[in-house]
Amino acid sequence: RLTQVRWSRYGPDYLEPEVNKEVYRKPGQELSEEEKMEQDLKALQPIKAAPCNVTSSLFSDPTISKFINMMMKGGNKVLARSIMSQTLEAVKRKQVEKYHQASEEERESIECNPYVIFHQALKNCQPIIGISNIKKGGKTYQVPTPLTDNRKRFLAMKWLITECREHKHYRIFMHEKLSQELLQAFNNEGPVIKRKHDIHKMAEANRAYAHYRWW
Amino acid sequence: MLRRVKGLICQGPKLDPGCFLQARAWLSAAANQGAQIPEERLRMIFRTHESNPANHSEQHEGQHYSIPLQEVKVVFPHGLPRRFQAQMKTFNEACLMVRRPALELLGYLKSTNFAHPAVRYIIYGEKGTGKTMTLCHAVHYCAKQDWLVLHIPDAHLWVKNRTELLPSSYHKERFDQPLEASTWLKNFKVSNERFLKEIKTQRTYVWSKRESTEMGSPLGEVVEQGVTRVKNASDAVGVVLKELKTQCLLGSFRLLVAVDGVNALWGRSTLRKKDKSAISPEELTLVHNLRKMVMNDWNGGAIVTTLSQTGSLFKPRSAYLPHELLGKEGFDTLDPFVPIQVPNYSQREFESCYQYYLDRKWLQHEKVCTEEGREELLFLSNSNPWQLERISASL
């Protein structure tokens, strides 16, 4: 008999917590019918406890939290978070220095916000089409497959982190390596973008086998 | 439009000093009346054009003044905190905030009586409140007023980090630290070139069989000797300190002794002798000579020191008062001193720092320019300058 090992201890009637302060600040008249129904439900139904990494802070970002979780080793969230903040600081420092030394016309084109750079770099690294191994007639073929949004995001973050961990010198700090990679990805250059293009080329080359996919 | 308005409002110092605290209510009230008060006027209040510390007064409180980078290289070859140096490099300018403890200290320095023994000032406060920056403000003032500045950036660095320890040639039981002494002498040379040529030694000093400095030769030669012959560097430092102390009484120059982390001189050290027994700071030449310098048995200058828990050894993090950090021996030695406490940022100073970071494009997150972002920053940092800087680095 099979039993689940990892399963939620909450019953089916528990609702997710709403952490965003803006939602509660809307006056009653602006709410639509559905939102009014939801609020009435929340007054009566039990609500799950909010996890530790979710805050009502204005500066929290779910993508950044995911990236921190992926960078974490051995449950050391403190270290992973500090590396992330040092990376953002390094990216910002480089860009602000360039900004202050540039002339008036160049200043408008320099992007100083590390969050914008992070999101744009991640978007640039996401592959459009993926590859999966399908075994047919004893041979394994690399078949082009569509990818969901979550999978794309995961692949982009995974490639960034493995690139920094494995292909760079181990004595350089992680935040320096990461900030360099992020800036390169933001400008559509660098090894991670190259890897994405390799996947695309492979998918294009194996176009003939696309009909092997049955899902 | 922006530049023209800024040009019109160069009268930062002439603005009403009390207006800042009520600025928000004032602006909203004025906006209700429909008056055209530009947002730029509020923002300019965080900067002042007065770059000479001698002219700073209460009306400049909370405002940032900038020091030209060329001057920074001469006045502060060492002594500025590392994060501030990184900030200087990023923003391409060096801006210090004028705060009340610094103004108090400058007032005392302006009214020193040079015939009386040197007064000792101890700047103390909790971690990260701006003690080193207050010290740097005072050093800048004295450098502008043409005093001879003896700035020891961090006395804790002299009692930790085992590098080389040579047994002293001058005194049998003491230990020399050639590396630290030679770096300090190099930086001392950069900041006080002019005085090194004018001040002459009053005794002959024999360094070895073939090298000696004659009586009446300029102090620059002693410094050169220490820099080139690294073995004699600590003794050169001792000679420089002794000469300056004896000659300051004659009155040809004013001397400022600025020591950061003075509690290192009376604490414990992590250095050990070859047989692994601990060395007390008393047995180090540099510390021994510096202790003599910090005594108030000379006149013609002032001694400004800072207590620091951050680099200190074997002291708990919550200790910040003079009695806790100096210990009995240190407190008794420094006993008649003027304490200056440095608190966290006030409302006005926090607002000024926040506006400065916004102006220099350091606070980049979209939500940080809103009211709620500002309140969250205030809450997270508790108006502590160090915390604020660390938090705003990643935002």
TrEMBL record, chain A:
Keywords: Mitochondrion, Ribonucleoprotein, Ribosomal protein, Transit peptide. Pfam families: Ribosomal_S7 (PF00177). Gene3D superfamilies: Ribosomal protein S7 domain (1.10.455.10). It is found in: Mitochondrion. It comes from the Eukaryota. The keyword Metal-binding does not apply. One of its GO terms (biological process) is translation. The keyword Calcium does not apply. Residues 56-207 form the Small ribosomal subunit protein uS7 domain. GO terms for cellular component: mitochondrial inner membrane; mitochondrial small ribosomal subunit. Belongs to the universal ribosomal protein uS7 family. PANTHER family: RIBOSOMAL PROTEIN S7 (PTHR11205). This is Small ribosomal subunit protein uS7m. It comes from Pelodiscus sinensis (Chinese softshell turtle).
